Write a sequence for this structure.
């Protein structure tokens, strides 16, 4: 039976519900007498159970059923949360998550939930509900399908169908005209509740052919999908007598669909190629000076820009999809480390390109761990300092002009600059006579691979995997990291990320016979060498802009281009946090949108390129990495 | 020959609406009932091809009316009219012998679909 095409959907939806469970459990922990979270938990677990049963994941179904049973007793009894109950439910949720993940990749055998199941049943028995009866699922059928008589029929009702339980019962009645019906999952009692989500299965005996069973099931109405035995067919509107009129059907359908991310990536690649072709068309139009070609070039430009915007928009994902797992994590960490932490998330709805968001989980996790472990002091120490014993960590997302800033702030002890300075001097990272460290220098010291200030290696952090990992990951996404710290008061890490990766606006510069692209995100201004006087600072050529000394990098020399530069060269001033650098190039060739393509740099390539792009004339150009040049 | 329909609902508004929807689709409304017991009585008298039955009605509820009608005529084609949230009652009505159901607020297309399913 091929249910594999639904496995991804099952996984995605289950994850959403389990993530919601975490939030609900945390909410219940905060307000132990509030019955609302328990109802939400019950529904979420119930939904996961229904999906797992349809997928034939017997162990997930069983675990979910027992969890649901306990939740149902708690719900009905309006019991307040206790420490033991919360711990058990957190554990059950985690076990469920693991079971879901393993099942979805075909490793159901590895699931071991015996201990959790026993504890769930024990707790349920104490509440007077007795041991959960084995779920009325086709669990037996799933484990030994060959031993069960009849063909397994799995039905999904249309999402918009009202009173799905009634519809399901009609399906069963229709099916009974074919032969005996049994092994109905979920049980018919579930049809009478509002929680029934329209997915159910049953076995039907008799000699009816597959298409006959399908026809009969669909004749009950509102059937979205039916699979019999191993064959699956989508209910086509035309196949159902008196099918819903198209107008009302479209009105009632949900306004969201799920799209495989790979499909969006494919679209993005195509748009990239279109943008490249558009550049070429514009060049030809400029040469041809034909009003007809101009017109069409302008039209194509406009349309492709709109198309590009739409697709980028479709890739945008709110940050809560990654942030939602953090409250639970911070809570668990704080408990483990004996800290008291109030965790707040702001700007959950801010959106980022899915590809960037997916990469952010680990760096943020790292910063949050650091904040709990090294930032927030122990309650005793905080009291000594006259602070509230409960520390605060805030995770914030803010949309800036062309980027999103995500910050992690803790109101802990701040970073001990004197200590970092001492270490930095010892390791020769700063001038031995330096008296202070700027925030920027501080970051550079902290970001040395393997640097750790932890005196004791806790299980949480301080294993020597430090800020360098965060910095590397964020830079690879075209972003930057800043740190601000006030001793005794707070530390903030700010990650700035481009909203999308795929298409950026860049300055095109010429050096020798090659062209290079510099993303505008980091360009602060351009000046001219020869007009602007140069000076030597600490043995490096530099210019003075306003009050600041900007060291120069001659791209021609850096890249080893032969020949002499022109008499007057533009200098592109890059700015990243507090650092600046002036890149001397031969000439400026204008601004344009470029499509970023990753590239595998051959060994020995200078670490100043972040990717490549194809220019309007079809020739490639390398993209300079601001981080690498600074 | 067009199909005959008996419309049972305690609200005039609902009876009018159902009659309009079905009338415009070419059905012949042969009778209306305001209570469950009236519905049973008129069914015997009129032998309609189809009955639309509200669940909650005074005197005798819709579900009891379904039981009584089906007892009299096991082939009776009864379409339940329910409100959102009446899961348990709808399930009970189907177990009692109703052939299909529609949910208020009515969309004409859905009512007609259901009627066509019932009349097969």
């Amino acid at each position: 039976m091929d249910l594999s095409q639904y496995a991804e959907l099952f996984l995605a939806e289950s994850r959403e519900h389990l993530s919601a469970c975490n939030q609900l459990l945390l909410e219940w922990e905060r307000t132990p007498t509030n019955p609302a979270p328990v109802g939400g938990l019950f529904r979420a677990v119930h939904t996961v159970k229904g999906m797992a049963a349809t997928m034939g994941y017997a162990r997930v179904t069983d675990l979910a059923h027992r969890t649901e049973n306990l939740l149902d007793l708690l719900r009905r009894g309006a019991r307040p949360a206790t420490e033991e109950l919360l711990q058990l439910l957190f554990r059950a949720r985690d076990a469920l998550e693991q079971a879901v993940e393993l099942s979805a990749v075909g490793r159901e055998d590895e699931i071991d939930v015996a201990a959790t199941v026993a504890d769930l049943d024990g707790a349920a028995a104490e509440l007077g509900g007795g041991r959960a009866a084995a779920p009325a699922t086709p669990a037996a059928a799933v484990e030994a399908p060959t031993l069960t008589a009849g063909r397994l029929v799995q039905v999904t009702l249309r999402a918009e169908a009202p009173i799905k339980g009634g519809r399901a019962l009609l399906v069963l009645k229709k099916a009974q005209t074919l032969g005996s019906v049994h092994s109905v999952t979920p049980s018919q009692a579930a049809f009478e509740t509002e929680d029934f989500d329209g997915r159910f299965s049953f076995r039907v005996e008799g000699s009816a052919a597959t298409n006959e069973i399908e026809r009969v099931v669909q004749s009950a109405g509102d059937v979205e999908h039916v699979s019999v035995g191993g064959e699956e067919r989508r209910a086509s509107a035309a196949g159902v007598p008196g099918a819903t009129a198209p107008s009302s059907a479209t009105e009632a359908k949900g306004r969201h669909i799920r799209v495989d991310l790979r499909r969006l990536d494919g679209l993005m690649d195509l748009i990239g190629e279109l943008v490249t072709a558009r550049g070429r068309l514009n060049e030809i139009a400029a040469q041809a000076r034909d009003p007809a070609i101009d017109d069409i070039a302008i039209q194509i430009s406009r349309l492709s820009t709109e198309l590009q915007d739409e697709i980028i928009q479709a890739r945008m994902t709110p940050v809560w999809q990654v942030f939602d797992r953090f409250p639970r994590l911070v809570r668990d960490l704080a408990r483990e480390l004996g800290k008291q932490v109030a965790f707040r998330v702001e700007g959950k709805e801010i959106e980022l390109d899915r590809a960037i968001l997916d990469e952010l989980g680990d760096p943020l996790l790292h910063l949050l761990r650091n904040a709990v472990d090294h930032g927030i002091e122990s309650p005793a120490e905080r009291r000594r300092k006259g602070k509230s014993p409960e520390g605060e960590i805030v995770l914030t997302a803010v949309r800036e002009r062309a980027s999103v800033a995500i910050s992690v702030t803790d109101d802990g002890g701040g970073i001990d600059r004197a200590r970092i300075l001492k270490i930095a001097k010892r390791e020769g990272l700063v001038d031995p006579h330096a008296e202070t460290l700027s925030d920027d220098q501080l970051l550079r010291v902290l970001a040395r691979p393997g640097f750790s200030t932890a005196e004791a290696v806790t299980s949480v952090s301080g294993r020597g995997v430090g800020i360098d990992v965060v910095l590397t990951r964020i830079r690879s996404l075209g972003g930057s990291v800043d740190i601000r710290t006030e001793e005794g008061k707070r530390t903030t890490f700010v990650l700035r990320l481009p909203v999308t990766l795929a298409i950026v606006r860049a300055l095109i510069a010429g050096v020798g016979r090659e062209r290079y692209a510099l993303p505008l995100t980091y360009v602060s201004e351009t000046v001219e060498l020869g007009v602007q006087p140069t000076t030597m600072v600490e043995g490096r050529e530099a210019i003075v802009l306003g009050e600041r000394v900007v060291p120069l990098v001659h791209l021609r020399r850096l890249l080893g281009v032969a020949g002499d530069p022109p008499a007057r060269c533009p200098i592109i001033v890059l700015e990243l946090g507090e650092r600046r650098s002036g890149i001397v190039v031969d000439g400026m060739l204008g601004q344009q949108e470029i499509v970023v393509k990753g590239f595998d740099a051959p060994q020995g390539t200078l670490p100043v390129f972040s990717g490549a792009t194809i220019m309007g004339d079809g020739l490639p150009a390398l993209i300079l990495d601001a981080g690498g040049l600074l | 020959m067009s199909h005959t329909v008996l419309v049972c609902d305690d609200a005039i508004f609902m009876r009018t609406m159902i009659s309009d929807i079905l009338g415009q689709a070419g059905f012949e409304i042969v009778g209306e009932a305001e209570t469950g017991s009236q519905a049973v009585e008129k069914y015997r008298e009129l032998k309609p091809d189809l009955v639309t039955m509200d669940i909650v009605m005074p005197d005798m509820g819709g579900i009891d009316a379904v039981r009584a009608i089906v007892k009299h005529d096991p082939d009776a084609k009864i379409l339940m009219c329910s409100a959102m949230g009446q899961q348990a009652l709808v399930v009970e009505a189907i177990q009692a012998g109703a052939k299909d159901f529609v949910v208020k607020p009515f969309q004409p297309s859905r009512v007609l679909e259901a009627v066509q399913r019932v009349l097969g």
